[in-house]
Amino acid sequence: MSNNLIEIKSNDLRKHNTKLRYVSRARYEDDWYSIMHMHPFTELFYIVEGTGLFKIKDETIHVKKDDLIIVNAYVLHTESSKNSMPLEYIVLGIDGISLTVDSTNSYIIHNYYKYKQEILFYVYNILKEAQRQEENYQLVCENLLEILIINLKRRIKSNIILTSQKKMNTECTFIKKYIDVHYASNLTLDSLASVAYMNKFYLVHEFKKYNGISPIEYLIEKRISVSKLLLKTTQYSIEQIAGIVGFNSQSYFNQIFKKKTGTTPTKYRKTHTNK
């Protein structure tokens, strides 16, 4: 009898401080609504069928079956497809990692056809565990994710570096940036909590902790700040400016503006423009 014993040498590797936010399988259909968005965590997409387009920041990328796309936190992106060869993918939302590829810090795309069996094993099993939610499924998902990350480091030959994110409240940073971009939209505490995947009461507590004011107070301050600029540099009417910055009515805008600045929008414009 032959016995080929292989010794496993110890090393200094430690587990990445990662957390699986969610896993989902999506397929392009007629009700697919494509809009640019971002998340306070990294997303990993694996294309299992079809073709489509990924728009990341100002770039548009053609994607196909077995493409792996990793998009860093706070990077605007969206996906689209056509009915002839509908795009289908599995996506993982992952906290605790970011990717630096050469001098870029936004996304990476790599075709995994050669190694599809080894990566799909982990991706499909993470999806299966999350769907079944049997005893200790979270622990199983975490360990599968850890092996998946190691596989990425092995297979993607693009100077890829996985780094633990700094210890900071990434959700609050994300919400602050989200408000800076979408302040003119009909934002509510519920909608902000939804895009950050947070409980709204926890969001208020954490946002106040890191920024000194609530998310809605920050939203109002942002709107007032932009309205001041418009009052000084444009000839838009007060009603138009109220609508541009996200207020539902001119009277409410006047009320909030005076509360925050001590004067009305009309008087503010006269003081700062001599018009």
Highlighted features:
275 residues, alpha+beta, Jelly Rolls, Arc Repressor Mutant, subunit A, 2 domains, 5-stranded antiparallel β-sheet, 3-stranded antiparallel β-sheet, elongated
Radius of gyration: 24 Å
Instruction: Tell me the number of structural domains.
Output: 2
Order of helices and strands: EEEEEEEEEHHEHHHHHHH
- Structural class computed from helices and strand pairing: alpha+beta
Q: Assign an overall shape.
A: elongated
Span between N and C termini?
99 Å
How can the largest sheet be summarized? Answer: 5 strands, antiparallel
Query: Could you report the average pLDDT, rounded to the nearest whole number?
Result: 83
Instruction: Report low-confidence residues grouped into runs of 5 or more.
Output: none
Instruction: Compute the number of strand runs.
Output: 10
Percent of residues in helices comes to 40-55%
CATH superfamily of the largest domain: Regulatory protein AraC
How do the strands of the widest beta sheet line up side by side? Answer: 1-7-2-5-9
| CATH second-level architecture of the largest domain | Sandwich
